[in-house]
Design a protein that fits this description.
The chain is mainly alpha-helical. It contains three helices and no strands. The longest helix is centred in the middle third of the chain and has 26 residues. It starts with a helix and ends in a 5-residue tail after the last helix. The chain is flat. Helix 1 runs antiparallel to helix 2. Helices cover 87% and strands 0% of the residues.
Amino acid sequence: MLMTALYIAFALISVALLLNVIGLARGPSIPDRVLSLDTLYINSIALIIVYGIAEASTIHFEAALLIAMLGFVSTAALCKYMVRGDIIE
């Protein structure tokens, strides 16, 4: 039962990742692409966590935490660059 739910979660998150890549490529403006990139890394974190649950391994959760921290910093840096035109003042 749990494995069936995990397979369904894998499939749905994979579809979401594919749609994020399409949105990243087709985004009409830069903020749309940044938002798509932000959603892309969140979905990749979800995929890693679901895989960690399926494998019963704790190392996947640590990898997801590292990706979350790097994703947050990169999204904040991109937003600051879009607003001010410079990341470091």
